[in-house]
Design a protein that fits this description.
Strand order of the largest sheet: 10-11-12-14-16-18-20
Structural class: mainly beta
Distance between the termini: 54 Å
Strand content: 35-45%
Radius of gyration: 32 Å
Number of strands: 59
Number of helices: 2
Largest sheet: 7 strands, mixed
């Protein structure tokens, strides 16, 4: 899971905790060291030693014997995540001095077969090689190499955090004494294909069965709390059944929902093909469809108003999704890692969002929210977009070029993170802010061209880009140095260009194209109805006018103004284009049109007429290019 924002939040929280920790212990002596014999990393604070890590020493036998003293000080605590994912450990011996083993220890120790706890330990014990608290009410950890079947003792009321994480057991029997299943308790238990959650369990934690091998799950009536992603990313899971007596949850066609049927909490990861969300649903919860990799299309009914964060993350075979008119809230990275998603369609009656060429925007077109991960080739962002949203292009590995219009002011981080098809990108002069990690790990991105003054750059914007990555800036711009924010910079002189778009019958406004690229259609018999043209990279301007059905020649307009008609279904029949100001002394503007019954006509230049004025033939496409004087 990418879960960028969740990781950031956790990082901030951890940083705060570290700061608070520093404040608390600042007046005490702190010693950090590594014990050469055991490979244990530890700190000494307030006269007590805490184990914070482990690195297997040379010649390690596989048995980790935790000493009761380190650095001449009693060892009383194993810090969170201190000993994890250590394949060399086969057994762990815990002394009597240990009073606190924090969460997430010993997970991922795939060859661990046994725990042995000193009988004098007042807080922990081992029974049949498994670690428990002293009175046996909490199962702390089952060794990861344990295989076959296992019956949890009837004294256990809590199955601890990560207690069976990654274990090889094929069957686990949970007694009726258990009330709480903590976070990640059975996470990554891929051999576990069946389990019965007994009535009496009231709480199931975050990612409790994440990526296990279950094919079905039955939630008893006693469960009152389910953590996020409790049943997520289980590719074999076909059904989630909820006992009818449960007061908080229910299942609709095997999908986990709230009792009132308004929240869709979790779709089983083994669902295949198309899926229509039930009509009672008003909210699709965060991660609701996480890793439903076999679903190919999803239809959202009109009652749905909110789509949660990461709701469809890693739906890797999802090719299309239709958002209804009622949706007014879409969370961050809702379509994250959907690599085959080519189209996000939005009902035209939706007042909050819209879709242009399958890309999701706010209704007013000012914010680009999400480009589907299955898009390929070149993308031209429509003029009028002011913000490219966080993670908007984060999964678009097959996009090779993105054209950013002059309307864009802000690129939020990480808008293009890991978009590996990009080799270069142009940042227009309108951009004033680029957020953290916006182009992080775009590993083939070698060149970025800035046409305006230096924008504000947050951290790691271009970190891990291609070798030799270079920032190119217009030689008339200000604020760039060498290096600039740690990146090599080189000035360049602007080259002029022309960009344009057309309004096409039955299609509407197409995206802007530039410098001789065709705008319109060919072979579809669709009329052009209007055009915008703008000049780039040179002083001066561009003027143009069109000959319109039933109207004739309109007045001259300039610099991206509309020429033609909108909403009147009138064809363009001819066009004239000319340069103004300094541009006229440096360039000629050439243009040609594709006309009804004629096809592509000859090139015209500098205000000449191109088309069929007076013959009532429709224009179907146009190409425009600037040519330096004398070429």
């Amino acid at each position: 899971m990418k879960k960028v924002w969740r990781f950031r939040i956790l990082s901030v929280l951890m940083s705060l905790l570290i700061v608070l920790g520093v404040i608390v212990i600042s007046k005490e002596a702190v010693l950090a060291d590594t014990d050469a014999n055991t490979g244990l990393i530890y700190t000494i604070t307030n006269g007590k030693a805490t184990i914070t890590g482990f690195t297997a020493p040379v010649g390690f036998s596989g048995t980790l014997t935790i000493p009761s003293t380190l650095g001449g000080t009693n060892v009383d605590r194993i810090a969170r995540n201190a000993i994890t994912f250590e394949s060399k450990i086969k057994s762990i011996i815990i002394p009597s001095s240990i009073t606190n083993i924090e969460d997430e220890n010993f997970k991922g120790c795939s060859n661990l077969t046994s725990f042995t706890v000193d009988a004098a330990n007042a807080d922990f014990k081992s029974v049949n090689d498994i670690l428990y608290n002293k009175n046996g009410t909490k199962l702390v950890c089952c060794p990861g190499a344990r295989t076959g079947s296992f019956v949890i003792p009837s004294s256990v009321t809590t199955i601890g955090n990560n207690s069976f994480y990654g274990c090889l057991l094929t069957n686990i029997e949970i007694p009726s004494s258990v009330k709480i299943i903590e976070d990640w308790a059975f996470g990554h238990c891929t051999n576990l294909t069946n389990i019965t959650i007994p009535n009496g369990v009231t709480s199931i934690g975050f990612c409790a069965f994440y990526r296990s091998g279950l094919t079905s799950i039955s939630v008893p009536g006693s469960v009152l709390e389910l953590g996020d992603d409790a049943f997520a990313a289980i590719s074999t899971l076909q059904l989630i059944n909820v006992d009818a007596s449960n007061a908080v949850y229910k299942s609709i066609d095997g999908v986990l929902c709230t009792k009132d049927g308004t929240h869709l909490i979790c779709c089983p990861g083994g669902r295949i093909g198309s899926y229509t969300i039930p009509s009672s649903i008003t909210t699709i919860d965060p991660f609701a469809f996480f890793y439903c990799e076999a679903i190919t299309s999803i239809t959202i009914p009109n009652n749905v108003m909110a789509i949660g964060d990461f709701a469809f993350e890693e739906c890797t075979r999802l090719t299309s999704i239709t958002i209804s008119s009622s949706v007014n809230s879409i969370g961050i990275s809702a379509f994250d890692l959907c690599f085959m998603l080519k189209t996000i369609a939005v009902d035209t009656n939706n007042t909050t969002y819209k879709s242009i060429d399958g890309i999701l925007f706010t209704k007013d077109g000012t914010r680009l929210i999400c480009c589907p991960g299955g898009k390929t080739g070149s993308i031209v962002i429509p003029n009028g977009v002011t913000t490219i949203g966080a993670d908007a292009f984060g999964d678009c590995y097959n996009i090779t070029n993105v054209t950013i219009p002059n309307s864009v002011i802000s690129i939020e981080g990480p808008a293009f993170m890991s978009c590996s098809g990009l080799t270069s990108i142009t940042i227009p002069e309108s951009v004033t802010n680029i957020g953290s990690m916006s182009f992080f790990s775009c590993r083939n991105l070698r060149d970025v061209y800035f046409y305006g003054n230096a924008p504000r750059l947050d951290k790691d914007v271009f970190t891990n880009c291609a070798s030799g990555f270079t920032v190119h800036y217009l030689n008339t711009s200000t604020g760039f140095t060498n290096p600039w924010n740690g990146y090599t910079t080189v000035p360049f002189t602007a080259e002029a260009g022309v960009s344009y778009r057309t309004h096409v019958q039955d299609i509407g406004w197409q995206d802007y194209v530039a410098n001789g690229t065709t705008s319109g259609t060919s072979g579809q018999s669709k009329r052009l109805e209007a055009i915008n043209i703008q000049l780039d990279g040179v002083s001066g301007g561009i003027e143009y006018r069109t000959h319109v059905q039933d109207i004739g020649w309109q007045d001259w307009v300039q610099d991206d103004a509309l020429s033609g008609t909108s909403g009147q279904s009138k064809r363009l029949e001819a066009i004239q284009i000319r340069l103004t100001g300094e541009a006229t002394s440096l360039y000629d503007v050439y243009y040609r049109v594709h006309a009804q019954n004629f096809g592509w006509m000859g090139w015209a230049k500098n205000g000449e007429s191109a088309g069929t004025a007076g013959y009532s033939y429709r224009l179907e496409a146009v190409e425009i290019v600037l040519i330096p004087k004398g070429d």
